[in-house]
From TrEMBL:
Residues 85-186 form the Tetracyclin repressor-like C-terminal group domain. Transmembrane segments: none annotated. It comes from Gordonia sesuvii. InterPro entries: Homeodomain-like_sf, TetR_C_31. This is Tetracyclin repressor-like C-terminal group 31 domain-containing protein.
Length: 191
């Protein structure tokens, strides 16, 4: 992705996060990016392409938060201690629910749109598969015969928790409650 595409993707995400898909127009993206009218048309001549730029930025932000919050797990791989996995996952949920709030809102809107747009759906599936692959090593110990399916379920449940906190709840759940829920999702014993 070029610097200009990234700038336009960030602007499109910002427009969706603050006003929903109805607010997403080429003009609104140009204005949010601080560029002259018509600039986005070169990179995203259609609404579908504009949605794709926004979704690419959503996943860029999600990956950046994941890499930062799961740093301690990445250092030791699948041999990470249960407490480290729980703390990193809780950090991820909290970061996505706070600093990633705009990305979560935009992604939610774009997930609905992806039902009707094959290119967006492909982007969603590709990125979801990457998150499942990231999670799978940590579930292999308790579900070796179905670790991919268990990882898929964990990704879905954690995504639901993030969406609940971001889109519905009037305030975030307390950290100990989030950590306990994640322990249950991972089927770890909470101490």
């Amino acid at each position: 992705m070029t610097d200009r595409q990234a700038l336009l993707g960030k602007a499109a995400l910002q427009v969706i996060a603050s006003g929903g898909l109805r607010a997403l127009t080429h003009r609104a993206v140009d204005e949010a990016a601080g560029l002259p009218a018509g600039s986005v048309n070169y990179y995203a001549p259609t609404r579908s392409r504009l949605n794709g730029l926004a979704l690419a930025e959503v996943y860029e932000q999600m990956y950046a938060i994941a890499v930062r919050t799961f740093g301690p797990v990445l250092d030791v791989g699948e041999k990470a201690a249960t407490d480290v996995v729980l703390d990193c996952t809780t950090d991820f949920v909290e970061a996505m629910s706070n600093e990633g709030r705009g990305a979560v809102r935009a992604r939610h809107a774009l997930l609905v749109e992806a039902q009707f747009d094959a290119d967006l759906r492909k982007q969603v599936i590709t990125n979801r598969t990457a998150f499942i692959g990231f999670t799978e090593p940590f579930v292999r110990a308790y579900a070796p015969e179905s670790s991919e399916r268990a990882a898929e379920l964990i990704v879905v449940l954690i995504d639901g928790l993030i969406q609940q906190q971001t889109l519905v709840a009037t305030s975030n759940f307390p950290r100990p409650m989030i950590r306990a829920a994640i322990a249950r999702i991972f089927r770890y014993e909470e101490r």
